[in-house]
Design a protein that fits this description.
Homeodomain-like_sf; TetR/AcrR family transcriptional regulator; 9 helices; transcription regulation; Tetracycline Repressor, domain 2; TetR_SbtR-like_C; mainly alpha
């Protein structure tokens, strides 16, 4: 008696191929997040003009696949926010270990500006999802990233000692109020030049 194939009873020998492997699912999820990040950053009004259907199309997946990973637009935005801000946090430690303090700080600020373009237009969603920032698990690690760069600069004597990371974060928060579009990068660069200049020791 031939054994019954529980996956494909009509064929006891050759099972049907699985619909998708875990690797496929991870690849699809990563592609969706990458496309969504680019789309939200490019849109002058953030996620409000970017449809889930267009994101699925650009990512090369079906709409159903997108919604299996992210049941709502808000879920997609929040996941993208956590992914992007973790990259920014990790970069601070990498730069502090590999670049001169002022260079490390400025390069990191540039990345914060890039992240600000993503956050523009979706800030209200993130604000609501994190209870106004009170439940944001990334808040303390982000402050820690700032502290690493400030401490390196203070130790080298090129940044003022005793600067509060929260004060710097408050200054940086203006970056996610700059609307994407022509001249936005130049404006962010000018603002960051002012911030860095205020942090220097000016010997």
């Amino acid at each position: 008696m031939n054994p019954v194939n529980p996956v494909n009873p009509a064929d006891p020998v050759n099972p049907l191929p699985p619909r998708a492997t875990r690797t496929d699912a991870r690849t699809n999820r990563a592609r969706i997040l990458a496309v969504a990040g680019e789309a939200f950053a490019a849109s002058a009004s953030g996620a409000s003009t970017t449809s889930m259907t267009s994101i699925a199309k650009q990512a090369g997946v079906g709409v159903g696949t997108l919604y299996r990973h992210f049941p709502t637009r808000e879920a997609l935005i929040v996941e993208l926010y956590h992914q992007e801000i973790q990259k920014v946090i990790d970069l601070a430690h990498t730069l502090a270990a590999s670049r001169l303090p002022i260079e490390a700080l400025r390069l990191w600020f540039d990345e914060v500006a890039r992240y600000g373009q993503l956050k523009y237009g979706v800030a209200e969603v993130i604000h609501a999802a994190t209870n106004g920032g009170l439940d944001d698990e990334n808040y303390e690690p982000f402050l820690g990233a700032i502290a690493v760069l400030l401490d390196a600069g203070a130790t080298a004597g090129v940044l003022k000692p005793g600067i509060e990371p929260e004060d710097v974060l408050l200054q940086l928060s203006v970056l996610w109020r700059i609307p994407p579009g022509p001249g936005s990068r130049q404006r962010a660069a000018r603002i960051l030049d002012l911030v860095v200049d205020g942090l220097r020791t000016h010997r």
